[in-house]
TrEMBL record, chains A, B:
One of its GO terms (biological process) is translation. Belongs to the class-II aminoacyl-tRNA synthetase family. One of its GO terms (cellular component) is cytoplasm. Homodimer. Its EC number is 6.1.1.14. This is glycine--tRNA ligase.
Amino acid sequence: MNAAQEIQNREAFRHAVVNTLERRLFYIPSFKIYRGVAGLYDYGPPGCAVKSNVLAFWRQHFVLEESMLEVDCPCVTPEVVLKASGHVDKFTDLMVKDEKTGTCYRADHLLKDYCKDKLEKDPNLSAVKAAELSHVLAILDDLSSDELGAKIKGYGITAPDTKNSLSDPYPFNLMFQTSIGPSGVSPGYMRPETAQGIFVNFKDLYYYNGNKLPFAAAQIGQAFRNEISPRQGLLRVREFTLAEIEHFVDPDDKSHPKFSEVSTLEFFMFPREDQVSGRAARRIHIGEAVAAGIVNNETLGYFIGRVYLFLTQLGIDKDRLRFRQHLANEMAHYAADCWDAEIECSYGWIECVGIADRSAYDLRAHTDKSGVALVAHEKFAEPREVQKLVITPVKKELGLAFKGSQKMVVEALEAMEEKEAMELKATLEAKGEAEFRVCTLDKDVTIKSNMVLISKEKKKEHQRVFTPSVIEPSFGIGRIIYCLYEHSFYTRPGRDGGDEQLNVFGFPPIVAPIKCTVFPLVQNQQYEEVAKRIAKSLAAVGITYKIDITGTSIGKRYARTDELGVPLAITVDTATTVTIRERDSKQQIRINVDEVASVVKEFTDGVSTWGDVLWKYPTHSS
Amino acid sequence: MNAAQEIQNREAFRHAVVNTLERRLFYIPSFKIYRGVAGLYDYGPPGCAVKSNVLAFWRQHFVLEESMLEVDCPCVTPEVVLKASGHVDKFTDLMVKDEKTGTCYRADHLLKDYCKDKLEKDPNLSAVKAAELSHVLAILDDLSSDELGAKIKGYGITAPDTKNSLSDPYPFNLMFQTSIGPSGVSPGYMRPETAQGIFVNFKDLYYYNGNKLPFAAAQIGQAFRNEISPRQGLLRVREFTLAEIEHFVDPDDKSHPKFSEVSTLEFFMFPREDQVSGRAARRIHIGEAVAAGIVNNETLGYFIGRVYLFLTQLGIDKDRLRFRQHLANEMAHYAADCWDAEIECSYGWIECVGIADRSAYDLRAHTDKSGVALVAHEKFAEPREVQKLVITPVKKELGLAFKGSQKMVVEALEAMEEKEAMELKATLEAKGEAEFRVCTLDKDVTIKSNMVLISKEKKKEHQRVFTPSVIEPSFGIGRIIYCLYEHSFYTRPGRDGGDEQLNVFGFPPIVAPIKCTVFPLVQNQQYEEVAKRIAKSLAAVGITYKIDITGTSIGKRYARTDELGVPLAITVDTATTVTIRERDSKQQIRINVDEVASVVKEFTDGVSTWGDVLWKYPTHSS
């Protein structure tokens, strides 16, 4: 199959999936009756149930099993917080405007489309030109605003709709801005991630955890990005649900007590070096990846393993899942290491979970801006002796020498780092005086040896005070769900043997939006009453079900609910027993009405497999 | 106890509750390290768990047991939707500004504070004046902007902080405004309620439900109100979680098939007439209230009953819960009836759930604005014969008579309602001509009998097309949780017999943030391992627990977790058996380690009561 055919197949497959999803209301373009808003989608009833199930499993797998501290912070966030985090200044995309109509485009998208289009469709493209365009695609994310502008001008790229010329690129902040309170003087933003709500609460959470490290806090909630021009359907949207973990750890000890529980897992990893040297992703034991230093530390490795388990238990195909390490140019300067869980779908490899060691960056940024020390303490069993720098300005002499400027000179002397102070001390001892820069006065002053005492003293310390590192697994819930839809979808021939293909979502029971259906075989009052009694017993134990008492044929009713991914169908065909049919195998068993709720519950809770059920109740051929 | 004492007691009680809530991180003022933002709060770990539990129970009690269609729509909403719903024009509070500093205040709050203050603290107040101020308080919500301004001026009310004079009142829209996309030409708002997302999806949801009425859709999500000056702590906030139900029903048949399941419930109701005549709320059977016409219809009554069950099962005290009917002046003009579930707490009676019959208002508003018919169809078993008005303008004659204005005259004739048309017909038959108002021309014209044919014809109709009514129970989740905190809180003497009082949150197991604790009695490796094994078995069945292996005394560990409302404490004091202590009774039982998870699960799931547990395992005295 050539590349063009493959693209066509992928698009046909996507079309079939998306068509089923929209027709069965897994999702709905938001505000559809008003022609919608790009990048906003509703979860309809089955989609909403899938989302609830994914989040419930996330809570079980991470919050409960790892004893995390879950919090829930507002979306509305005052500017000062996002100024400290860097979002106000740096959370931007470069945008160009149609110079006549004012329509906005993402600058990198236009350049990318131009290059791809030329490469795919221009038969006269020279080898040199093709190599140049491929190079542009490779370095696209590294281009500065000026470089991007120059390329757009250089290639003569114009506005796609009007062919008008374009403005120079300029940064557009992706946060939705608003104003808090009636005065109009308190700018705020809708949070672009949930993490900041956790960071600003570090002090309280550390206290809640008994002032002990490591611990993790978690948050599930909405986040917002005012995309310039949303693309890729459900994958790039303006409002989405994030589930984020901030695991706080001693930077000197990033071991993890439960690492051995995941260390033997093997899955596709794509280390930085393999990417740079053009190799493919390969299966690696996570234990070996950590031992070999490919993954920076045990805690990061532990979370990669836990994310692998989470995604595959949800129903993500392990052969279309890889952990890709960020290249040096993708990673923030402060990050120690970063891996994305990428899932392959018809759009290509999609980043669904980011797992980053962000070092102490966030806590330091909020400490600096707020003045509240977001630090941890390690109490020593025995006090330790340390050498401490002591700087004592002699205020009387400094006052005589500098009069009104005395305060600034004193502060500058006290603010010296160890190296600078020891050099000053040496100069004063050698020459009796030294030139000294006072930034706040913007000039050098002459310091004499009687103006300041500098020494190193031995002190006893009872504890170590440090800023914890944070390891952050961040889950894009909507993206995971979309990939899950593609990985779960398949078709099979209809019953009548014709060309008809039936759609099936083969969701695992924990994900399935509805756990079972209840069908009276034929329309009759007795069966209907049995069906209602079963429905009530299912609701009582928390099982979602769909009851269908229409006279439609059983085959059609199966087909309808296979399309919703319902794993079990209960058909009432006697007053005392029913058949249960499993969606993927289409095998059936017969059991008593009174046993239905417990059998369904054990299967859908994952306590028993369909194999276990078959072992207990022999198959039944209808 | 006099009124002042009662207020003092209430405030002391509230202080004790809020102090415990903040100290144990049930909630945290958001962005505290930056001095916070009024009206924004975080749920800390136990608060977040309580919220999850309340929402899970809401889903079980409403969505699952009533087979509702749950949806999940974005918070960002384009202006057109909120223009149609009326929020852009009418979702306002009246505000006054300090004329020098620009500080904003809610006009009604200032007037209310002034009246209350005078009534409570001015010993020289005349009886006449007191009566006047009491009257102002009673009619406060009905005052227009001008009336409010006149009273503020008349009483000489100034800015509370500066004593500067105040501006006239003017409306301030309470929605957080933002802009969608980069162009700045698409205004949007953060939704003030979740309901609109459901209304705009009516057509799809009706189809999903097999084009059948009645059905209900539900949504849980964040909503936003940019309050002018938030007060009352957790009760009036700028961002909050709503859980809303929109039950769509045939306006001609508001019966409910399951009404008999709630009709014998009896609880405090406060009908409109009792409020007006100064009587107190009284216990009424909901069945009788519907039969007597106090509650407008069965469906409304059914939901009132279900809300009563929901709140009391959560732990709300039934004696501090009442359903208050809206007075005529509180209710929107289109509403058929409206009842608030009000819960009494230290702030007084707080509206926590609104249950309104909103008639066809919302669907009609969106039909008008979007042009998409949000209607239901009732197919008749047999076609029905109906009389239909037929108006046929004779275009030739009208063209001759009105030339360029013909089109407007034709449209005006066709738009006539039945009554107007039949009157015109009678006049034309009697006099041969008639004066006829054409609004679009802004004048009367003379219509002659040859210009229009008006008749009634018999037609066969196969279906009835109508706009459904909607009954909306809307839950303020944060308010319910706050009231639950107050209703669950109590103190008891400490173990040492001194003055120390221990705080307890007596949450029902389904609400409790942590279901049980695991304590090794003394610090030893064997007990610690047993504790960890128990913890693992609890996590596996989804039970939240807290393990405490510090050497703190058991009494202190009990006290710490009573304050978090943990219902069961497991103490490991042998290698094979443990004691389990129940929080409120302080009774203990002894069971085998292997039985722990199942006993705790049955109790916390509500399958067995503590009484059941005691019956099976005799109490143990420690």
